[in-house]
């Protein structure tokens, strides 16, 4: 929501007050604005100055209001400044130069939506702000140049949108991973249908490596989706690590020691987006899933279901988008060697406690489970050439296109009824499904999960109807274990 | 609701064979609907069993149960529990001999199994109600298992397993003891392999058990005898050639699907879908940890 900055200069003892539910950074603006105005060669009014940030009941924070406050004060003294249809963003240095601020892109988009036609920002922020459509962006280096422009005496540097899509740094290619045919196949299915996936395997089997290659299977983002992602990174002030114009989906891999606020969003003052929002339109990789605290996993439940996260603070609740593919990795048991050549030394009680930890909160949202075995040296050094990611991505894109507009979040987002309709299972596949419900103790949830995955497998195979083979394959990646 | 009953040598339900013991119990508490029958077979083994072992215990128990033979075991984790539930799943009856009071559920996670046993069999213990599962009770309870059963099958046991003590009691009582052989590298089979080295009959299939115990053969109706598989292995003709090809590639040890795929030159997708088909046919089971194992 745009904030209107008003300034009033009244007779009385010289003083400077800023009101409007401000945080400390805005209160300190008084000590930046006053010298900046003086050092820019203007006169700070030696009277009683009151600045109001409206709407007054909305909490505000940050140093981005400095420029607007200074402009409002100068305008109160000098009616020749033309401010109509203009918005200002930027932090003032004491020498009246402008410093960049974070979150410029989402603010510019918000101002454009509110009908503001021009925005003055620090020059460093100009190209970022220019990504927002429907608003003219002007970059100012100093308070003086800004004032000259407002008097109609000078001009500012127009912000130029950097149209060439930048890369997001090299993505590891799947061909770099030897063997692991089944895990790669499962990741391909996950990419094609947007399914969340869990990889289990002994330490050192290559789960992390596989997960890091996963983004290379995903198609480029649409430009509006990329802009949304860039807006989130802008809020965190982390656009430097991710160029705003890149179309590659983001990949986030927070460590399990991360705070809850760091993971889902929060922090003091206005809530900041967390890792799950930084993974929006991309991939959230949680290595050692079982090491994350139960509260952390519990907190993922809402975003996994609603594709957004609402962080409530005492005075305001913020909703950030969080539509990501979750890749979890975990050891199969606390010692890590269940099913490995090395013998597992876990007690049965430990095993079930370990499994319950994941299965409780987020099992419902994981569609595929695949085991990643430790590779034999033979497999690593011999074996055929591996398929490069680009080839797999071609299949993923084709499968996604088959679904077209019908699936907002891929097949993973289908409801039970939609799944049934989309699957169009053949009679043999139906028989197989009935049999599996009986033999493998498939729950109703498990039933739809298998069917959704089977739909994606059929998409990859270019089939209209879910057949026996697709269904049988989907059953293999199911989360429920027999017995 | 069924109430526990005290059964002593004077009771009509007293299993006379308990008197084969040098120091038979004074009596025992019994909770359940069906008492210990004759003949019956004990299936015992480690608490920390492998998945193959659990599967073997379950299948022996269900084959016995469908032939009308009661299964006796100790309701411990692992092999014991698999034996009880295998018998119950096949619609048979089973007896659990406990090392704690008849009203104590130990281990606690077997609450559901315990109530199923009470419905279709019984719990037996010589400990008074309320006795916690003291360590020293279990060797005593093993002698009752050995005395009740006409034959004891040890599925998996390490060298120090309590199942070996049951086997010793059984041998002393003249009961037939059979042991399921395992790899000489598998710790879980070290005890059973030792038994075999010491002259115990190896168990390769239900036929071995019936041949060893003539009383079992006479107790099993002719019709049921015909349906019992003679020995494990073979009988793959019911699967289509592609599925048979996969089964042939899987040995006795659990393998990862990728190994099967590499060996046969099949795509991971194809391997996954065929393994599921085999699993549904009951020929393969998937184990926690992602491996698959043949069960036929």
Comma- or semicolon-separated keywords:
heterodimer; A: 483 residues; alpha/beta; Ribosomal Protein S5, domain 2; Rossmann fold; 4-stranded mixed β-sheet; B: 296 residues; 2 domains; 9-stranded mixed β-sheet; two-stranded antiparallel ribbon; 12 helices; 11 strands; 14% strand; elongated
Describe the structure.
The complex is a heterodimer of chains A (483) and B (296). By secondary structure, chain A is an alpha/beta fold. Chain A folds into three domains: 4-158, Ribosomal Protein S5, domain 2; 174-405, P-loop containing nucleotide triphosphate hydrolases (Rossmann fold, 3-Layer(aba) Sandwich), CATH 3.40.50; 414-483, Helicase, Ruva Protein, domain 3. Helix content of chain A is 39%, strand content 15%. A five-stranded parallel sheet of chain A has the order 11-14-17-10-18. A four-stranded mixed sheet of chain A has the order 4-7-8-9. The mean pLDDT of chain A is 86. Chain B folds into two domains: 5-227, Rossmann fold; 236-294, Arc Repressor Mutant, subunit A (Orthogonal Bundle), CATH 1.10.10.10. Chain B has helices at 51-66, 79-89, 111-120, 137-148, 162-172, 190-197, 206-212, 214-219, 222-227, 241-249, 257-264, 268-280; strands at 5-7, 28-32, 40-44, 70-73, 94-97, 121-125, 151-154, 176-179, 201-202, 284-286, 292-294. In chain B, the strands form two sheets. Chain B has a nine-stranded mixed sheet, sandwiched between helices. In chain B, strands 10-11 form a two-stranded antiparallel ribbon. Chain B is elongated, with a radius of gyration of 20 Å. The model of chain B has no long low-confidence stretch (mean pLDDT 88). Classes of the chains: A alpha/beta (483), B alpha/beta (296).
Sheet of most strands of chain A: 5 strands, parallel
Q: Can you tell me the residue ranges of chain B where pLDDT is under 50 for at least 5 consecutive residues?
A: none
CATH topology heading of the largest domain in chain A: Rossmann fold
- Strand fraction band of chain B? 5-15%
Radius of gyration of chain A from CA coordinates: 27 Å
Instruction: Choose one word for the global shape of chain B.
Output: elongated
What is the CATH first-level class name of the largest domain in chain A?
A: Alpha Beta
Number of helices of chain B: 12
Q: Regarding quaternary structure, how should these chains be classified?
A: heterodimer
Q: What is the number of E strands of chain B?
A: 11
What is the CATH topology descriptor of the largest domain in chain B? Rossmann fold
Number of domains of chain B: 2
End-to-end distance of chain B: 40 Å
- Indicate the CATH architecture of the largest domain in chain A: 3-Layer(aba) Sandwich
- Briefly note the structural class of the backbone of chain A: alpha/beta
- Element pattern of chain B in H and E: EEEHEHEHEHEHEHEHHHHHHEE
